[in-house]
Design a protein that fits this description.
The structure is a homodimer.
Chain A lengths: L1 H7 L4 H8 L3 H13 L3 E7 L7 E6 L5 E7 L3 E8 L4 E8 L6 H19 L6 E8 L3 E2 L4 E2 L13 H9 L3 E5 H12 L8 E6 L3 E7 L2 E3 L29 H4 L2 H10 L12 H16 L3 H25 L3 E5 L3 H19 L9 E4 L6 H15 L4 H4 L4
Parallel strand pairs in A: 3-6, 6-9, 10-13, 13-14
Antiparallel strand pairs in A: 1-2, 3-4, 4-5, 7-8, 10-11, 11-12
Pfam families (chains A, B): MarR_2 (PF12802), ROK (PF00480)
Family (chains A, B): Belongs to the ROK (NagC/XylR) family.
Protein name (chains A, B): ROK family transcriptional regulator
Chain lengths: 392, 392
């Protein structure tokens, strides 16, 4: 019912009874409990012209909060979301170059504490913390296994470490899935959602929502696209094939190619994602300034991405593709200009069914926001209302 | 409730009330209606040791039937299924070489009539007819659009043509999706199903069941895998890439390669799927007899299939892969021997989560059986019970 109140932007008790199928008395009782707990407030009155005016309800954003943490190999982001989904506080920083995971975990914990302190939020109002991390992960045990882009990470029990340090309930989710959760949460379209979220970060991955359900897969590791071959003329890959996304259009190989071609100077001290990210910024700036070499590389990258999205679209016949993540603010314009038409040429169902391609409105915080939405989702669904509204 | 009776193999009224959540009186009323209509019968009595013995119920297979038609470019299959899912009659023949779709539609109608006549089934007991056809299709209009392997077919209104000729309610579904429906229907495993069905026919495609739901996609055209690149050293493809499945390990390119290499004689008059199928039989027989050239080609094919399945597994993190279709009786042994280990090497979640690989128990009729299951599914679900049990 809280989810209905959130999505409706002003349902009355009568409308809630209609949409939930609960009796008027049940709705009234639950609403009273929520009003008493300060989670919902009466927002005003509407009149439909007939009958008596109805009191509309809305969530009180400041009544409960969730924390979202996104551990990208290049960027650590912490957000605090109110129960209405608004971001009330955020912090982002480059992921430490240290290869000892415990140092990075300490940084995560410091950032969480700092954001909480700065926000001034009463800790008793925080219902939980979600972490988005690169896969593969062990969802049930809350362990980050051995992500190819997180050097030195091997079977790190991240969930329990954060839970012990914060005292909060913690869930761990794959980064791309968290991004899809955020997009699903934000979208207010009617009807079942059927989309792929292309996450553009240190690695490229896809979060999936099919028939309105987030696709996690049997072990929570759905969304790996790194070994889709997008360039048969490309570089050899560790998997034994050639021209996989992982060696063709992910940021590191793209920058390495730009350096080989002399488009940008080869001056990075190592392959840490932060330096790669800075080089990406430089490459995009060059292309914007009219540099043909930079422009060609970025166009080739968008062609590769279109080919990967064609594989996903042909397999799943999605209605739309949303793109986002830390790289989006730089490659968004190029991708938006070139990918839709190219994707359509490669789609088997192009004559039957359009696919819309757009950027997320959530910006580069989408992973962290999705991680927090996981907690709010739990809090807003009936089975765990107890988490949100103490029976006392 | 009928679906519960079908799956349970002997629930009593009490157990039906437990599993459906309906009241004992409601269950009793519905069961009485089904008994009166002859759709359900009392199968015996069980005693749990305490309380009075319970009367178990089962479907009467001969009470209602559904027809399933599979139009594969190489093979036309018609089956009749009883409401319990048993195949009571079947017929298969090579798809006519004529390029005029109306000739093929006439053959379909003749086959349907023949199977019905031979089975001796009372036509009033047939609740509908499902058609499985190669994509792309227009599900809503019941039109076969322009499948690459069905020469001459362009926007053929197959559903309405068959409905007009038979007087039956008809649904059209993509072949690979129908195969997944059949597999889902047959499987009696507990828990949500999460699998990919690799259909091996004139073309290769994938039917998907995710979180216990059949994935149809926004336009009913999910399951296209023809342009996944499996061989970067392979032949150029019309899509602009190289080494796509469609030009690497589908039957026609495989046979063409075998002919180029002199493994089998190049004696086919044309590329019709029937001749390709016969050449496949010959190639497999040669490999079985110890011919190294034939063995190498089939091993290469299974390697390519493993690579495509890795793309599907990595994207969706499925629990199992089932393989079947017209080619399965010949390539099954090779694929079963080689694909599981190779797939595991290529899976991102290999350390977290096993994926079982097996052949369907439904044989090469799986598409036709799935098409009939679509009708039985409709008949067995509450919203369309009216279709099955006339209120008179």
């Amino acid at each position: 019912m809280l989810d209905q109140i959130r999505r409706s932007h002003g349902h009355s008790r009568v409308e809630l009874a209609d949409t939930t199928g609960l009796s008027a008395q049940t709705v009234s009782n639950i609403v009273q409990r929520l009003l008493d707990a300060g989670i919902v407030e009466e927002a005003g009155r509407t009149s439909s012209g007939r009958g008596k005016p109805r009191t509309t309800l809305r969530l009180v954003g400041s009544s409960r909060y969730a924390i979202g943490v996104h551990l990208d190999p290049g960027l650590i982001t912490v957000v605090v979301l109110g129960i209405d989904g608004d971001v009330v506080s955020r912090h982002a920083r480059a992921t430490p170059t240290a290869q000892d995971p415990s140092d990075t975990v300490d940084v995560l914990i410091q950032d969480i504490e700092m954001v909480l302190t700065e926000s001034g939020i009463d800790r008793t109002r925080i219902v939980g913390l979600g972490i988005a991390a690169p896969g593969p992960i062990d969802v049930h045990r809350g362990i980050v296994l051995d992500p190819p882009n997180l050097a030195g990470w091997h079977r790190v029990p991240l969930r329990d470490a954060i839970a012990a340090a914060t005292g909060l309930p913690v869930v761990l989710e794959k980064d791309v899935t968290a991004a899809a959760v955020a997009e699903k949460w934000t979208d207010e379209a009617d009807g079942a959602q059927n989309f792929a979220f292309l996450y553009l970060g240190t690695g490229l991955g896809v979060g999936l929502v099919i028939g309105d359900e987030v696709v996690r897969g049997g072990s929570g590791n759905a969304g790996e696209i790194g070994h889709i071959v997008v360039d048969p003329d490309g570089l050899p890959c560790a998997c034994g094939l050639r021209g996989c996304i992982a060696v063709s259009c992910a940021p590191l190989p793209l920058i390495e190619e730009a350096e080989r071609r002399g488009v940008i100077p080869a001056e990075r001290p190592d392959d840490h994602p932060t330096g790669v990210d800075a080089a990406m910024t430089r490459l995009v700036a060059l292309a914007d300034a009219g540099d043909d070499g930079a422009d060609e590389l970025l166009r080739r990258c968008s062609e590769h991405v279109a080919r990967a999205l064609a594989v996903v679209s042909n397999l799943l016949d999605v209605d739309r593709i949303v793109m986002g993540g830390p790289l989006w603010d730089r490659v968004g314009q190029m991708f938006t200009d070139t990918i839709p038409a190219r994707l359509d040429e490669l789609r088997a169902a192009r004559g039957v069914h359009p696919v819309t391609v757009s950027g997320t409105v959530l910006g580069s915080d989408v992973g962290a926001i999705g991680a927090a939405c996981l907690i709010l989702d739990e809090a807003l669904t009936p089975r765990t209302t107890s988490l949100l509204v103490p029976s006392a």
